[in-house]
Design a protein that fits this description.
Number of domains: 2
Order of helices and strands: EEHHEEEEEEEHEEEEEHHEE
Largest sheet: 11 strands, mixed
CATH architecture of the largest domain: 2-Layer Sandwich
CATH class of the largest domain: Alpha Beta
CATH superfamily of the largest domain: 6-pyruvoyl tetrahydropterin synthase/QueD
Helix content: 10-25%
Distance between the termini: 20 Å
CATH topology of the largest domain: Tetrahydropterin Synthase, Chain A
Shape: globular
Number of strands: 16
Strand content: 35-45%
Structural class: alpha+beta
Length: 304
């Protein structure tokens, strides 16, 4: 059982969620000249990542409803689908850079907290537009960021509590956890392998379990022998305790899970003595929706 010195709400967790969209379109880049392949009209399957940053809603445990983000994003991005991008007013030369800026500016009026927009025009080429570079987790210029590309996979069931008295049906997700650490330049050796270990250790109690909020935003949790009762205003949900991971959060949103993992990792002695100055945890559900949490690491010899 994990025991925390502080809850997520007592730590300054920066959360950012991302939703992925795709569209297919043609374009060409006249300024490159006739000898360049992009001078010719051609097409791509574009992948667009829309990111929103902000504080977690105290009841829902999310930055924004992924459903609302999906609805708003689809409406704007659909205007580009099966079009020649050179014909879109206001876009200019349809490079990935201009496309990322154009979509950000089109989406910003309808999405509070829009923080970044990334356009992939191929599996190996992308551009991110992030005005002012707010929310960057790269740390100071003397630091480097190391990530674990392999990630940690989790298969979990959960239900989201919906105030004032409801809940989602129990359902499941395959989650992918990816971690990054900011470390002083020259001290990155072994960090990638360590991230893989920290990811596994911080989520071992969650895999193949029902994720249950230990401090539910509505109702209360009662333990009765081998059973756990989630007592809500209109029903009592009874679950076998051996199937549950009771977590120190108020709701099991993807944002709250990312924040919990980041908090757990920054509390590990191995992390606090590793030289890492910042941990970034990105939790992805269903392959297209993700949440990112960033926490600073307190060195082992410093007071907590």
């Amino acid at each position: 059982m994990w025991k925390m010195c502080a809850s997520i709400e007592e730590r300054a967790v920066k959360s950012e969620i991302t939703k992925i969209f795709t569209f297919e379109a043609a374009h060409h880049l006249p300024p490159v000249g006739p000898d360049h392949k992009c001078f010719r009209l051609h097409g791509h399957l574009f992948r667009v990542e829309v990111s929103v940053a902000g504080e977690l809603d105290p009841a829902m445990g999310w930055v924004m409803d992924f459903g609302d983000l999906d609805r708003i994003g689809r409406k704007v991005i659909a205007e580009l689908d099966h079009r020649v991008l050179n014909d879109i007013p206001g876009l200019g030369v349809p490079t990935s850079e201009n496309l990322a800026r154009y979509l950000f500016e089109r989406l910003a009026p309808g999405i509070s907290g829009l923080s970044a927009l990334t356009v992939h025009e191929s599996p190996s080429s992308r551009c991110t537009y992030r005005p002012g570079n707010e929310g960057s987790a790269t740390g100071p210029s003397s630091a480097v960021t190391v990530g674990n590309a392999r990630g940690t996979l989790l298969s979990c069931a959960h239900f989201l509590l919906v105030p004032p008295g409801g809940r989602e049906p129990i359902h499941g997700h395959d989650y992918s956890l990816n971690l990054s650490a900011s470390v002083p330049a020259g001290k990155a050796d072994g960090i990638e392998e360590a991230l893989a270990r920290w990811g596994t250790e911080s989520t071992a109690d969650m895999d193949h379990r029902i994720l249950v909020p230990g401090r539910p935003v509505i109702g209360r949790l009662e333990r009765k022998g081998s059973l756990i009762d989630m007592v809500l205003p209109d029903e009592t949900l009874t679950l076998p305790s051996n199937d549950c991971a009771v977590l120190d959060i108020g709701n099991t949103s993807t944002e709250a899970l990312a924040g919990l993992v980041a908090l757990r990792i920054t509390r590990m002695d191995a992390v606090r003595s590793s030289g890492a100055t910042r941990i970034e945890a990105t939790m992805t559900e269903a392959g297209t929706a993700s949440a990112r949490a960033v926490l600073d690491v307190t060195p082992l010899n410093a007071p907590v």
